[in-house]
Each structure stands twice: as C-alpha cells, then as structure tokens.
C-alpha cells in the first residue's frame, strides 16, 4: 500500500481534519505497488461537506508539499465513468474521519 511511499503521520491527519476530509484513499500505481520514482500519487478524497475547487486545489498543493511528491487529488464525482469501477476497486484507505 501507500505506506512505503509516504507515511501517514500526525501532519497528514491534521491536514485532513483541517480540510474536513471524510475519507482519503490512494489509487493507481501506488495502490498497486507499481509506482516508479517519478510517479505521482493519485488520491481520492471525500469531504464532510461540499467544497470549492479552490479548496480542492489548496489541499492538493499542501498534500504534495507534505508528501514530497506530486499529488493528483480527485473526488469520486470527477472520475471518468469509464474508469470509475477500476479506480474504486483499487483504492486503499489511508484516512477516515471518526
């Protein structure tokens, strides 16, 4: 899973709480264990409440800075219907609000 690529630590948990993230999951090459050194990290986010595009972009940038790699942050609604089932099947949870 993603724990070999980045560590889920208190900073990540605090960031998720700050942005009112309901769940955060990794998918794609990192979730499959097929990432390369230059691979970005694909994250699927669900928020407690709807957020603006600006908020989504801010969180994406903060996650990239925290993890030290480019992050692509998407919501389930933004996933193409052609790949949605595969993305959801491969997604691995890294954060869930309590």
List keywords for this structure.
Beta Polymerase, domain 2; 4 strands; 98 residues; single chain; four-stranded mixed β-sheet; alpha+beta
Please provide a brief summary of the model:
36% of the residues lie in helices and 24% in strands. The protein has 98 residues and is α+β, with helices and mostly antiparallel strands. It has one domain (2-96): 2-Layer Sandwich (Beta Polymerase, domain 2).
Task: Name the shape in a single word.
Answer: globular
- What Rg is obtained from the alpha carbons, in whole angstroms? 13 Å
CATH class: Alpha Beta
Give unreliable regions as ranges.
none
Tally of individual helices: 4
Task: Give a description of the structure.
With 98 residues, this protein is α+β, with helices and mostly antiparallel strands. It contains 4 helices and 4 strands, in the order αβαβαβαβ. A 4-stranded mixed β-sheet has the order 3-2-1-4, with helices on both faces. The longest helix has 15 residues. It is globular, with a radius of gyration of 13 Å. The protein starts with 9 loop residues before the first helix and ends with a strand.
